[in-house]
Structures are given as structure tokens and as C-alpha cells.
């Protein structure tokens, strides 16, 4: 039997997910005390060796997750983040950087949880997470599922949606998208984008204008079937193009030309 540890600040909020996991014959241990003590007692970390999975509850704030995840990363354990509904930018970043292995929510059915955990189990048995080219998410929170997980090819109707959006981008909006497209999967700092757009020393007015323009780009792409925002905001670092959008543009000559020549 596989053991799952749920770290939380309130064990009552975990009853629903605990029951679903137990229905799948997982042995579930839910604790608020361990979470409270891990920062002060190094011995607490040895306790994690008894579990194959650890779930970080939505009651745990992001700053606390940032401190805990690097410590767990060095252990042979699958790290799962539980969210209430929406996936944050930090959760997304942690998935891409392989600091967590999956995201689930209370909305996930028993079937969805079963498939998600099974995939993580096979992943651990067959290859290290660092060698994987995609991340595993449960279905209810798969709004940021990478394009590589999708087997189907883009239909002409799908591409038409993106053509419509690109045609309605302003010159500055297209230029920003072009800069991010050229950077690929890399993050581009706000200062770098401002300098390339205005070709002068960056000031607060430029940064404010950039933020507003990026917001408009995101809004315009909401009419498409993108599974997440067109541009990812990585706080304190900069911007990065949505991997799904990047893949779509790179594989379509018309879309690529519109962005690159904009």
C-alpha cells in the first residue's frame, strides 16, 4: 500500500480529498502539526521518508511552499500541490522547473486522482523526473497543461482564432509578443522588453505602459482556446510566452510570419 502525507494548516479542509484517496486504497496521513514543526525540527524531515507522496494543501501559502519544496526535492517523494480552483503563476513555474510533480484539487474525481497518481508512480519507476519533458496534472486543474500532452493537431478553426487575434494586436503588442517568441521558453525581464520597445533608458512610465500592454495581450487571447494566459508573469523575473502558444506559432508559418514581421 502506498502512503500519502497531506500537510495542511487545517485538517478539516482535507476530509474530502482524504476520503477519495482512501477509496483508492492509499494510506493517508493528514497533519497540521508536522507542517508547524518542520521549520524548527530537522528530525521532522526524516518523517517524510515513510511516504511516497506528499500533498501540500491550499491552506499553505506560497511563501511557505517556496521554503518547503527545495527540502523535499532532495528526497524520493512525489510532491503534489493541492489548489482550490485556480493554478497560480508560481505553481505553474514550479511545475516547469520540476520542483513539484502534479497539481490536484478537491474537485477532482476519484477516477482523475487515480490516473494522476498512477502516472506519477510509473514516472518514478521508469525514469527520473528531471528527464521528463512534460508535467502531470489532474484533469480539473489542467488549464496549464503543456501542449506536448495533447495528441490532436490544431484544426483550421483553431488557427483562425489565433489569426484573428494577431490581426487585432497593435504594433507595440505584436512587438512584445515577437520578443517573447524569439526568447522561446526563456524568461525576458521587463527592463529588456522596455529597452527593445522604446530604445531608451527604462523609466517607471515605460514599465507601467508595458504592464498595461501585456494585460491587453492576455485579454485578447482569451477568445482563443489557449489553456492558460498567453503571457506568463513570473514575479520579480519578467515575462515568458505561454509554451502552448509558442508551440502553435512555431509550427504554423502564417502565425509565425505575422508575429515576427509585426
Q: What do you see in this structure?
A:
The chain is of the alpha/beta class and 262 residues long. It folds into two domains: 3-145, Response regulator (Rossmann fold, 3-Layer(aba) Sandwich); 156-260, Orthogonal Bundle (Arc Repressor Mutant, subunit A), CATH 1.10.10.10. 47% of the residues lie in helices and 12% in strands. The protein is built from twelve helices and seven strands. The chain has a five-stranded parallel beta sheet with strand order 2-1-3-4-5, with helices on both faces. A two-stranded antiparallel sheet has the order 6-7. A hairpin with a 3-residue loop joins β6 and β7. α8 (171-183) crosses α10 (204-221). The longest helix is centred in the last third of the chain and has 18 residues, at 204-221. Residues 126-134 and 142-153 have low confidence and may be disordered. Keywords: DNA-binding, Transcription, Transcription regulation. InterPro entries: OmpR/PhoB-type_DNA-bd (IPR001867), Sig_transdc_resp-reg_C-effctor (IPR016032), WH-like_DNA-bd_sf (IPR036388). Residues 132-243 form the OmpR/PhoB-type domain.
